[in-house]
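Incident log, support desk, overnight shift.

02:14 A customer reports that sequence design results differ from what the structure should imply. Their input is reproduced verbatim below. On-call engineer (initials T.W.) acknowledged and began investigating.
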């Protein structure tokens, strides 16, 4: 009996078995085709060009996905590839979602499970941002579950820069967790109230890490039952509330062992988006608190405000202002960002951004390139950036027969 290459390949790695019925009719291709037909492939390429004004950029503002390696040059930030089989409307729906990262930002994300044993990110330029099984159980209105690796439940900004109003991330985002390995449930009480709760190994982001490593990076004394807990509530203003209809208010918390600092910590978050009488104008607010429970880790809070104006179908302006206070005598920093976006090409985000960071209680930025000292020399840091992102979404995954002919 002759088998096609796809079937033989699956059999070779143990994903299918060649039973007599399969050998007779070679139905495996049809089965695989059915599974792939509802899977979509999407992704984006995130690039930038930065000019950090002034000389001596060793000490750049320490927001996530920034730093000296991106100053004064052209950058590939990250490539994201996503596979998605979303939940349908059935009571016992099932699916999955995968976000794969490649590029320098993948190392910054730091989800590589090898860190649990070696203590470093491995420098592979590869990371799993999300990879979870999606399930629904018919309890009440239905509980949607994520089991695996997923984004955190709190925060105003996304890990994915193209989803945010600005190119650079805020300090509020920087002090938040990013990803977790565990189980997360979401329940929609009604159109106005949505609740989420979950349990994870640690605050994150290292995949499969534990709060009780045996000979790993952190030799803590946590019980094997010790886990991280998280929850969030999202409220939406009803349609009868005039211009604020559709506005949202969110609050949540994450508490557990922080594998980035080696101590217990808690993150608390409150955020809101507000529609205004001007349809094109939207406002936002975020408050973040990082509390290490007095365990010697960092303590900080951040206040941020956002404004977005959709001038035309293609042109928009976004602004952000924030204040970060590292409690206990640490740096206090103001930050202001202005971003203009014009969608000139289809499926391409084109941005120009100016950012100003100001140290309120000291010199935190820059350095003297003619000195052997790495000490910061400036209170102010200025950055001008161009941010083009090419994206493709909703592409149907190819069938086995198509792949054989490529």
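02:41 Re-run completed on a clean worker. Output:
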């Amino acid at each position: 009996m002759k088998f096609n290459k796809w079937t033989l390949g699956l059999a070779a790695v143990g994903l299918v078995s060649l039973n007599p019925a399969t050998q007779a009719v070679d139905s495996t291709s049809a089965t695989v085709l059915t599974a792939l037909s509802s899977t979509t492939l999407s992704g984006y390429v995130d690039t930038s060009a930065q000019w950090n004004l002034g000389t001596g950029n060793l000490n750049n503002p320490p927001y996530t996905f920034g730093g000296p390696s991106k100053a004064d040059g052209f950058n590939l930030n990250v490539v994201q590839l996503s596979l998605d089989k979303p939940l349908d409307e059935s009571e016992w729906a099932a699916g999955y979602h995968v976000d794969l990262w490649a590029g320098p930002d993948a190392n910054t994300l730091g989800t590589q499970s090898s860190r649990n044993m070696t203590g470093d990110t491995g420098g592979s330029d590869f990371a799993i941002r999300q990879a979870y099984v999606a399930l629904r159980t018919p309890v009440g209105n239905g509980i949607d579950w994520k089991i695996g690796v997923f984004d955190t439940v709190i925060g105003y900004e996304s890990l994915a820069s193209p989803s945010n109003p600005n190119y650079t991330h805020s300090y509020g985002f920087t002090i938040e967790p990013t990803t977790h390995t565990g189980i997360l449930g979401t329940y929609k009480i009604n159109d106005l109230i949505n609740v989420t709760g979950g349990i994870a190994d640690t605050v994150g982001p290292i995949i499969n890490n534990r709060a009780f490593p045996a000979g790993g990076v952190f030799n803590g004394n946590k019980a094997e039952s010790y886990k991280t807990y998280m929850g969030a509530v999202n409220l939406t203003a009803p349609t009868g509330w005039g211009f604020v209809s559709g506005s949202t208010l969110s609050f949540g918390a994450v508490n557990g062992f922080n594998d980035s600092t080696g101590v217990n910590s808690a993150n608390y978050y409150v955020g809101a988006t507000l529609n205004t009488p001007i349809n094109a104008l939207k406002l936002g607010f975020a408050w973040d608190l990082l509390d290490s429970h007095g365990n010697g880790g960092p303590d900080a809070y951040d206040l941020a405000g956002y404004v977005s104006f959709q001038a035309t179908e293609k042109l928009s302006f976004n602004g952000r202002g924030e204040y970060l206070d590292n409690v206990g005598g640490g740096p206090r920093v103001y930050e202001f960002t202005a971003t203009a976006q014009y969608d000139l090409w289809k499926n391409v985000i084109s941005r120009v951004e100016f950012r100003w960071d100001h140290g309120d209680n000291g010199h935190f930025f820059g350095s003297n390139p003619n000195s052997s000292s790495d000490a910061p020399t400036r209170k102010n840091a200025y950055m001008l950036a161009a941010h083009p992102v090419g994206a493709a979404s909703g592409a149907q995954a190819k069938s086995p027969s198509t792949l054989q002919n490529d």
